[in-house]
Task: inverse folding
DNA sequence: TTTTAGCACTCTCGGTTCGAGAGTGCTAAA
DNA sequence: TTTAGCACTCTCGAACCGAGAGTGCTAAAA
């Protein structure tokens, strides 16, 4: 990667900033005037030519202003804003909002999504924390009608799953409660493997239900993420990119289509440290649908126990300056919340 | 409402149909040719003039084709398609999909939303069934760290709510489990009022927790709906109405902004019978944001126990012919599923 | 050597013009 | 009552054009 002079970095940064705000190609005169630079448009033009030569800028057509290329954004992100911090004022506002919702666990994820969307003025996504290794917490069996039974399984970390089973013959609620009680005593805090290793149950009903519990737990382990929360899609829809190009609009579809999104998350997750913010600019060649968009993602939680992802999706010219620090801060915040819950439950054993 | 001749109804219906498909104003010649009508364009023109006179059609400008007015759609909906049935083939496909997911309660709502969106080729929404009167089912208290306690409350019908409480002083997990056990025995199947009427507990911790449970239950009762599931927003975004008019685009916002949506649902819910499909055309003067859109809504569930709403949101020229029967069918289907669960639990007492 | 003023050149964008075509309403005949 | 014929209206897209923004180059200034 070619080295840039101080001044070139400044000019690149200003072009990115201006283009982010206006969505218009940036000209030399405009730049000099708007930011009161102490060198002339002609000088800027020379530098722009150099930056264009190096692949950081391009012209939509001869004699329009310059627009950052993907490489331009990439340089900006890694060399200029990656380590920027979120201003204290924003940190406080966000912390405050979480403080107010601290009791209401169910509000955490939607709140995180909403804050991310508002701060970044783009679309946001947050996945609920999800344990790679499920640990049994509590089972409940509720007889409904006839042979139908509602089974509620709670895992350590708070994940809850429900399913309906149909038994071979009707069973009383008393019997079901007894089975649940025994299994609860037997399995509490155990992982999938530990439960699988237990000696087989003699009671047929218990055995069947345990099989279903195991199925459910391992099904959960195979999923990449918990529930997905989205917010702020409309922020993005009014951006010019999404109004005009059909291509960009298809990117929104990727967001709605959970299976595609899962795929994106899975692939990004695999090479993500907790806390490290990943920036995917223009799909990086791998994602056709994201050609004109960028995604800023981070992983949060406690690796090995429960982790999730959160991030922001927007046009390629989104405000990285705002988005990256926000995503990083939110990831740390959620990590803290998750650890409060998990560590407590772990100690319980 | 003026009476229409058979032929006028036919022409109105065909115009609605054609406009729904093409989004282009419909001319007399086109109509005659496309549907091989056995009367001439001139005759159609006369009828069109009459329908325009009556307020069912309008011309975007002199010498364009005709477009249905809100009254036109309304007439079409009430007199032509309201009682239409969903074709057997569609009924089977849908039933089949639910049959496959029958075990997985958590999949029901997203599945319903997805089917609605696909069938109607518009955006869909489904609210989880929600009990107007909460009934206690099961409580669980989990010590996390220090004075933090995770409280999980399960209600009859399957609603689950979680919150974190901070106690005045640390309490052991044994103590918490004992409290939960006693409260479970005491409160199971009871309504908010019944619990409130119980004699006060002597144990301070039990008393505090019971207060929180009551708070939580009544908070739930005040909400209009359970969780909201959306799907297919992108179907709607590519419609010309949403590309061009900023006004229409704002309607999508209403869909994302849960509080607005709640309001819409609440107002519609109040005058809705279970199973009756409500069609809101162009906002009906009450909803500025919905000027160019329509919403088809129905209530499902068992009134007095648990109900929810489901519906479809799209441009005013959506295919009512497809949408209305689908919404009605889905409402019936979900009502069936809800009753299976609820009735079972009710009998338990 | 670096910066900058001057200038010729290029390309887009918005406005205007204009003719084709679609669709109408009216009249009069079938 | 229906329909053919016709004059009339209005939109839409294509073609055209000039203003303006922005560039790169050259040569002078610092």
Result:
């Amino acid at each position: 990667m070619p080295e840039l002079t101080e001044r070139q970095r400044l000019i690149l940064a200003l072009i990115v900033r201006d283009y982010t705000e206006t969505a218009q190609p940036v000209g030399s005169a405009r730049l000099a005037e708007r930011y009161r630079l102490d060198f002339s448009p002609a000088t800027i033009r020379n530098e722009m030519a150099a930056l264009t030569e190096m692949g950081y800028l391009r012209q939509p057509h001869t004699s329009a202003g310059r627009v950052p290329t993907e490489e331009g954004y990439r340089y900006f992100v890694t060399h200029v804003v990656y380590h920027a911090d979120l201003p204290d004022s924003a940190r406080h506002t966000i912390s405050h909002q979480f403080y107010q919702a601290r009791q209401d666990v169910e509000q955490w994820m939607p709140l995180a999504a909403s804050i991310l969307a508002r701060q970044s003025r783009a679309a946001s996504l947050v996945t609920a924390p999800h344990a790679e290794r499920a640990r049994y917490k509590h089972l409940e069996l509720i007889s409904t009608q006839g042979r139908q039974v509602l089974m509620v399984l709670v895992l350590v970390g708070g994940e809850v799953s429900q399913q309906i089973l149909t038994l071979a013959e009707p069973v009383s609620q008393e019997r079901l409660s007894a089975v649940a009680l025994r299994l609860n005593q037997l399995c509490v805090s155990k992982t999938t493997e530990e439960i699988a290793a237990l000696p087989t149950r003699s009671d047929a009903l218990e055995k069947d239900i345990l099989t279903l519990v195991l199925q459910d737990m391992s099904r959960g382990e195979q999923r990449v993420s918990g529930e997905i929360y989205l917010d702020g899609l409309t922020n993005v829809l009014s951006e010019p990119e999404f109004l005009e190009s059909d291509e960009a609009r298809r990117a929104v579809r990727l967001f709605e289509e959970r299976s595609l999104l899962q795929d994106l998350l899975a692939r990004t997750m695999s090479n993500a440290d907790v806390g490290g913010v990943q920036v995917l600019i223009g799909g990086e060649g791998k994602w056709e649908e994201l050609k004109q968009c960028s995604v800023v993602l981070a992983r949060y939680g406690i690796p090995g126990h429960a982790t999730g992802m959160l991030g922001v999706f927007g046009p390629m010219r989104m405000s990285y300056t705002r988005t990256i620090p926000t995503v990083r801060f939110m990831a740390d915040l959620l990590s803290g919340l998750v650890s409060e819950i998990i560590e407590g439950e772990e100690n319980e054993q």
Remarks:
- The mean pLDDT of chain A is 89.
- The domain at 136-222 of chain A is CATH 3.30.390.60 (Enolase-like; domain 1).
- Residues 39-43, 46, 60-64 of chain A lie near DNA strand C (CB under 10 Å from a C1').
